[in-house]
Amino acid sequence: MADQQSRHAFVLATLARGNDAEIKQFAEQLLADIDEVEVIKNRTGLVMLPMRDTVEGTAFHLGEVLVAEAHIRALGQEGYGMKTGRDLEAAMAIAVIDAAWQAGHELSTIDAFVAAQADAIAANDNERMRAVEATRVNMETF
Amino acid sequence: MAYVATRGGERAIEQSERLFKQELGTITPEKVKQVRETMPYLVDRVMGEASLYDQDVAALALAQTGGELSEAVLLLRAWRTTQPRITVAKPLEQDKQHVFRRISAAFKDIPGGQLLGPSLDYAHRLLATEVLAGEDHTPKPVEAAEKAAPSHQPSVSAWLSSQGLVDDAEHDDTAPDDIPDLTREPLLFPAKRAHRLQSLARADSGGVLALGYSAMRGYGQAHPTVSELRLAEVDIEVQHPCGTSFSAGRVKVSQAEVISKAKGERLDRGFAATFGWNEVKCISAATLDLNADGAEKNSAVEEEFFLYHTEGVESSGFCIHFKLPHYVTFQSSLDAMRDAKAKKQTPQMEAAE
């Protein structure tokens, strides 16, 4: 169960940071085989982001983040997508992929698509962190 | 209270607004994109002060106001009210942040080491005037390391705690929905710590710098040293309807913890954080936090003083209201002056007669 949840989290998080154009195109392909999609929510809104301070450990609000959200019912599943920004189509595409993934519909194709997206994200993250590593400094006291 | 009715001003008011906007020209998606891409630190500053994170919307506000920061922040705070709050994310923890810059001025050998990250701290400040002469100015590329820096770093605070130099931070297990929220409840004094830190997170950068600087120069009770300064990206952790926690993407945050010399066996500390990468604001705000407890009433480092005076929308709004018609109140002052003058002159005239 925990493993299934962590795989689910991986799929949702990867799609939230993935390439929007590719995700929309992939969702379109899946939709061709999905008969009915009930849209419960597709909107922009705010997510309040709390943080814990390092001095007293107090949780406080840093501010609100604009997100796009989609909640659908398809293939007998509750498909859900949320990502930072205002792209409602991208959120809807994530929700469609999520519903299909939960239903086991085209599971191997979806897993392969998500893995490719995750690889691209990881490569970009790695490149950025290699640049950061180049700024590591060792201080000496004389 | 009295009002002056004005007639005939509608046209002038409309033309005034048109003149402001005409001088800015057409706002295009390309212009907004250019603001976002070429001025990320300005966009960060506006998002922090607006307490609303979205680079596109912040860049639009800057383009629409011609970079008039108070107006841009006001526009964003107003627009924010049109959006529903969907949820409250899971609180950010130090060891989950993706750290791009992390330095300590107090301790050179912090666990995880020091990463300068993107910074102009040690750069010559030279204006690239060749651009004005028609040449491009292309920066030298970074010579990236073979190995990537670890994405996560432990907090210096946790290390200090393990050394017994500071008190352990208590774990605040307040449910996210129950965390005090200034956007839904008033700021009362003495303020809850959650209110103080939220207010500083959305404070005007120039305001906190001015008051924080006064403390640094000696008008406060404690001189700060940066224990840890971080620029990071953090995940927005939300819940799927079925209960799965997942990241809906990342946003940029900055934070600073400052310390002062120990008065007893423990170091005194101050903390601040904000949206975007804005280290001057965080160091200044953390300095105010460091100085706040036990501060003299009405001093710049007293909580009520700095929280009220660094709220950018209220302070700029109050400032600009002074240019709006005050004819009646001012007229009453003039009437009182003239009346006093007339009364003073009457006995003199009677005496002369």
Walkthrough of the structure:
The complex is a heterodimer of chains A (142) and B (353). Chain A has helices at 2-17, 20-31, 88-103, 107-133; strands at 37-52, 59-74, 77-84, 136-137. Chain A has a three-stranded antiparallel sheet with strand order 1-2-3. Chain A is of the alpha+beta class. Chain A has one domain (2-133). Chain A contains four helices and four strands, in the order H-H-E-E-E-H-H-E. Chain B folds into two domains: 10-80, no CATH class; 94-117 and 155-316, no CATH class. Chain B has twelve helices and seven strands. Chain B is globular. By secondary structure, chain B is α+β, with helices and mostly antiparallel strands. Chain B starts with 9 loop residues before the first helix and ends with a helix. Chains A and B meet through helix 1, strand 1, strand 2, strand 3 and helix 4 of A and helix 3, strand 1, strand 2, strand 3 and strand 4 of B. Chain A: This is Alpha-D-ribose 1-methylphosphonate 5-triphosphate synthase subunit PhnG. Chain A: InterPro entries: Phosphonate_metab_PhnG. Chain A: Pfam families: PhnG. Chain B: It comes from Maritalea mobilis.
Blueprint (SSEs and pairs):
The complex is a heterodimer of chains A (142) and B (353).
Chain A: H1 2-17, H2 20-31, E1 37-52, E2 59-74, E3 77-84, H3 88-103, H4 107-133, E4 136-137
Antiparallel strand pairs in A: 1-2, 2-3
Chain B: H1 10-24, H2 29-38, H3 40-50, E1 52-53, H4 55-65, H5 69-80, E2 85-88, E3 98-103, E4 114-115, H6 156-162, H7 193-201, H8 205-219, E5 225-239, E6 245-260, E7 268-275, H9 279-292, H10 303-309, H11 312-321, H12 327-352
Antiparallel strand pairs in B: 3-5, 5-6, 6-7
Pfam families (chain B): PhnI (PF05861)
Protein name (chain B): Alpha-D-ribose 1-methylphosphonate 5-triphosphate synthase subunit PhnI
GO biological process, one term (chain B): organic phosphonate metabolic process
